[in-house]
Amino acid sequence: RPLWEAMLAVGGKKLPYNVTMLVDESKGRGVMADGWKKPPPRSKYHIGYAGGIGLGGRSMTKMTFQSILKARDGKPVWVSMETSLRSTVNGKDMFDISKCYQIIDAATQCGIHLHPNFVA
Questions:
Q1: Tens digit of pLDDT for each residue in 55-102?
Q2: From CA 42, how far away is CA 64, in angstroms rounded?
Q3: Whose CA is closest to 50, among 26, 74, 20?
């Protein structure tokens, strides 16, 4: 039984407004999912997706975003991309801003947001 079912069974009480659910089929391993599950019907909370998002470059990220947009069924979503926004530089694990720019580009190509003027 999924863990989130117990969280939703709060005895008729409403969940706090800031509750979100994360769907990560890789269980934190950064492995791309085979597909993206739709949010439960009539859910009143936001849902996020994780698991290998951003791996495979800009075109793969764009395809992943398009799949997530389809799965979200018109509801707001967010994505977690911790692993794919990092690089090893001089033997150290570092946050990589250039990878963020690639993600911004993929998101704007999908129509998620307008392309910011300050990003070339």
A1: 777 778 888 888 888 888 777 788 888 888 889 999 999 999 988 888
A2: 24
A3: 26
